[in-house]
Specification:
Blueprint lengths: L3 H6 L10 H5 L8 H16 L7 H19 L1 H23 L13 H9 L30 H12 L1 H24 L6 H5 L15 H4 L35 H17 L12 H5 L16 E2 L3 H14 L1 H9 L3 H16 L5 H18 L2 H14 E2 L3 H14 L8 H16 L3 H14 L6 H32 L6 H16 L4 H8 L5 H12 L4 H14 L6 H19 L4 H24 L5 H4 L9 E9 L7 E5 L2 E5 L9 E9 L3 E9 L11 E10 L2 E10 L22 E5 L4 E5 L11 E9 L6 E7 L1
Parallel strand pairs: 1-2, 9-10
Antiparallel strand pairs: 3-6, 4-5, 5-13, 6-12, 7-11, 7-13, 8-9, 8-12
Helix pairs in contact: 3-4, 13-16, 14-15, 15-16, 16-17, 16-18, 17-18, 18-19, 18-20, 19-20, 19-21, 20-21, 21-22, 22-23, 23-24, 24-25, 25-26, 26-27
Amino acid sequence: MFDPLHKWLGIPPSEQPPHHYRLLGVTLFESDPDVIDSAADRQLSFLHELTGGEHGEAAEQLSNQVSLARLCLLNADKKAAYDEVLRRRRSKESSSELGPQPTAALQPTIPVNQLAAKQGTTGHPTGAAPTAPVLRPGPVEPKSPVRVQSRIAANAKRRRKTSSPFWMISAIAGIIAILMIFMAVREGHLKLDYSWITGTADPEGPSPATQPSVAETDSAPSTVPSMASNTPVVAAAPTSRQPSGQPNNRPTQSQRSTDRDDADNNRESSGAKAPVPKQRSLADLLKPPSPELVAAKPSIVRSPLPSAAELNEKLEVVNEVYGNELRGATKSNDPEVKIATARQLFRDGEQTSKDPVGRFAMWRYSRDLFTQAGSVADALATSDAISRFYEGYDRLSENLDVIRSLVSSDREWQSPADLVETVEAFVDEANQANRYELSVAAASAVLDSIGDGWSTKDRDLLNDLKKEASEADTQYSAFRDAVKAWSSSKRGTPKNQAASGEIGRFLVVARGDWDEAKLYFSMGDNRLLARAAELDLKQSQTDTAQREVADAWVIAVEGSRDAELREAVLNRAVSLIEAAISNLEGLEKGIAEKRLREVTKLLEDHRAHFPATSFVESQPTTFRSPGRILDNRRWTSTASRSDSAKSVRQRLEVGMGSHPRGLGAAAAGVELAGVETLAIDGQASPPVMETIDSDSKFGLLIDYHTPGGYTKRVFVGFATKPDRTFSLGPPWGKEQDKPDIEDSLPPSNHYDLDLNRWAPDTWDRRCWVTLFMQNCGYGRQAEASLSW
């Protein structure tokens, strides 16, 4: 039987069904979202290549599982709940395997002389039944020892005598094999994993009995009726048991991992000294605290940025081929004409895969036409697409040029909301990348060109963005200078100590990075801060030590004129005392609570005198605008005039009418922007849809938007039979009947969809999501609620 988990992902049957971490091929309880996301992309890219093969359906099912695993592990709340279930299962499995094993019942032993006597009896008195020998408590000494040699033992002795030459040959062969392995290891031709020999290797996953079922990790309430059927998506794994009478005292891989986890937890709570964090390099500290938001997918092979000569040559070619369209769009005062030409150039550029310079030239023209038309979102989306496909493209600088071009035109911005939102998102992203000068330039460009029609609220927002970015730029410039001074001076010199203090200050105030900041404060020129940092680095996890460190930090900033640093340090002291209180009782707890009130009062008084002093608090927590609804539409076919469809915000409803054969079609759609993951809860009545003909289907239509317009349609069926025909569809999105991709999901009342799974590489996070039903039977109804 074909096993896709084993054949494709290398997961043996003994580790099936795999937990999410094993399925993605990452370390157990991996906490880095980038690692998880990259691993999921890698698995999905591999599985998508197999969907057209012999086992395409199995590849699709595995892709669904990988997508669900990614969604679960990238959601902090779901990951925490999943990890708790997984740890509890692993701990339970470990304790059950390490506990007492069942043993065979002890049988009373009959002395050998009694046994021989019993065997010597050949008959019984007439009419009397044979009686069992009476067993008396306590040992019975035999009168004389009797040696009994069984036939098995005799045969074994003969085998040992007759097989000795073969034993010697086997031993010689074994010695030769060991010598060959030793020489191979010595010469470097063979490497041994000693961690498996010593039993210290990390397990790749728990046994099947420790795998939590989907029902336990699903956030959807169990009372919601099923959208298609009540069949669970994944059945629970059977419990593995140790055979009775065969005790196994050797710890399994999952037991060893659990023991190490427990040992780590015990070290954390036993009062041992906390490990000193490893100091990062100064080069790392100068990097942005998080990766760039728009990153290339692993499947995209990025081309080098074309030279000026190469680009000019291709621009001339594009101008010759599209001369009439470009001249008409440039001269026209109708923005729609410019947008139509820009979309055509972008779509044609997507098809130019073997000429990267030509594609760059076409997208460059497309971006400029979008800018001339005032289509802010499309212009920036085109720039994002260029950055995904070309190495070395400075997207932030190019996007600044787009913003400058937009505001420098003679266009009168009657409704500047889109432009203000665009500038705000750009400033947030540039600040995150430590490109504060670009933030200042963008806000200044808009402020210098706004007209009288702009509201005071918009002006104040732009002024605040400019001020915050300018202050952050000043702080970051001082930080860079301090890094250079620290690198060029000896440890312990006044220059080095001053630079250490400045580095620690920036890490705390601008980034909230206390782990790194403590290292530099301990080497700084402020003796009070250095003492507090040394205590913080050396502190044990005991509650008393935490309160002592908190007091040291409070003393260090007492009377300080640096308002931002003082607020950050007082916040640190409050958090340390709060952590200590959670483990205290009685009088000790009362003393700590009194100290907490005192330090909290210091912090409140400070904020009253210096409002909004901390730059790290003024920074936004997210750098992408939240998802929003752009449009709602509904549609029904003419097959039955009683078909129904309803689309209100995030709620979609469709239904078949009273056609005698159950024919008809209905669609309810919502257009979204900025949404990449989607949760769907729904129900159907009755729960099972009929299959009347090849057009019968029920599921989602997803239309993906790129700068070239809506260019891709995907149908995702809910337990829909394969090989469906598509003869009609809703008149929005890509507006075509047959989808580009057909996929299916197992029956469930809740789905978590990663929309990136089917998206084109140039998707700009805009899409239509449509609940679609066709020829599903008389009176069939379904509804779905979307969330993100």
